[in-house]
Design a protein that fits this description.
This protein is mainly beta and 378 residues long. The chain is built from four helices and 16 strands. A hairpin with a 7-residue loop joins strand 14 and strand 15. Keywords: Signal.
């Protein structure tokens, strides 16, 4: 599910523990809050200190220690086609599709040669269907009544090698599905695992890039695919931040307290759905249940979407920022697969119409005074 949280580490660890100072040239862009110690993790003025690289560059946005985000989409159409006999089709509209997420990141270890951040998150996605879903369509009745939830924890590790090379890795575990009570979480059926790793080069305080892989549900199903990290600041205003193919974003620094972004993200979600009423696949000739196949009591829901977005981040107080985002969501898949028989056969193929979306986000950052005292702001 997810997107890579590499930048959370360099932001939270550098800001909260403040182990480094920064030497900046006059032609570099003004930045606050600083993305991370630029080029080195050393204290300015101390001789014989080893230099360590990191994936961040000058001009990147503020660190995020605690994030609260709410996203909403207006009404849009949905069509679902059964891929097996005995399951009905569905056509209607979704009046409400909303997501709430709460995330927090804590630096657990911070040394020049090794940094570790622990993250915790809760996310909930809700649907309201305008059609026969609440009475006639078992899959959507389950989703509407329970919602789709995810509780996750992750560990991000940055291992600088020298003043140029660095390693970055993340492992994440989550419970993801339509569980409704604490007793549902005793089963491993809802458990999901994902991981990323990147090896990178810090070419300057304005340019860092790396090559690696992502193993997870970004494209709906569990898969392994290559990843290219590319962070670059071109001048006092413009920059780019990317983890291709999952995310590419252009950045425009208006001032110390205002940043605009534009680009796209690919988001993937994977949920386990426990049906209250079983679904039976039937023989098209006899109408009887298919031999050798158990009635469907559990489905795996794979959701993949592409968002084209505009985003504005603005400082409210020295420790609190706001993020406002709007754009267009293209839904690539919202498909249900057989989880009962463990053969991963597609049961329902769904298509959501494209729709605009908007979100509002509040996040806590290290206060300016803390950065100033540690030498992280010029």
């Amino acid at each position: 599910m997810a997107l890579f949280f590499a930048y959370r580490f360099r932001l939270v660890a550098a800001a909260f523990l403040c182990i480094g100072g920064v030497a900046q040239a006059q032609d570099r862009p003004p930045v606050y809050p600083l993305a991370a110690p630029t080029g080195v993790d050393t204290i300015v003025g101390l001789p014989n200190r080893r230099l360590f690289a990191n994936p961040s560059v000058l001009g990147m946005g503020p660190s995020k220690g605690l994030i609260v985000r709410y996203e909403r989409m207006p009404r849009f159409g949905v069509k679902s086609e059964a891929q097996v006999v005995g399951i009905s089709n569905y056509s209607g509209e979704i009046d409400k599709n909303a997501r709430l997420s709460i995330k927090g990141y804590i630096p657990a270890w911070n040394r020049p040669h090794l940094k570790v951040v622990v993250g915790l998150a809760y996310e909930r996605e809700e649907f309201q269907f305008n059609g026969p879903a609440t009475t006639d369509y078992e899959l959507y009745r389950n989703i509407e009544d329970k919602g789709l939830k995810s509780i996750s924890s992750q560990v991000v590790v940055l291992r600088p090698v020298d003043d140029v090379h660095w390693y970055l890795a993340r492992v994440k575990g989550e419970l993801s599905g339509d569980y409704n009570a604490a007793t549902d979480l005793n089963t491993l059926d809802y458990f999901r695992f994902s991981a990323e790793a990147v090896y990178g080069w810090k070419r300057s305080a304005l340019f860092s890039w790396g090559l690696g892989f992502q193993y997870g549900y970004t494209f709906g199903r569990l898969s392994l695919y290559p990843a290219v990290l590319y962070n670059r600041t071109f001048n006092n205003r413009w920059g780019i931040e990317a983890l291709f193919p999952a995310r590419v974003t252009a950045r425009y620094n208006v001032s110390e307290s205002s940043i605009f972004y534009a680009g796209y993200t690919v988001d993937g979600y994977n949920y386990i759905i426990k049906l209250r009423n079983e679904l039976n696949r039937r023989d098209p000739n006899t109408g009887t249940p298919v031999l050798g196949k158990r009635a469907l009591s559990t489905l795996e829901l794979r959701e993949t979407e592409v968002k084209f977005r505009l985003r504005w981040e603005r400082e409210i107080f020295s420790f609190l920022w706001m993020g406002a985002e709007a754009g267009y969501r293209y839904n690539y898949a919202f498909d249900a697969f057989d989880r009962t028989n463990n053969d991963r056969e597609k049961i329902i193929d769904s298509k959501f119409n494209g729709a605009p979306y908007a979100s509002l986000e509040l996040f806590i950052t290290p206060p300016r005074k803390l950065l100033e005292k540690s030498g992280l702001r010029r």
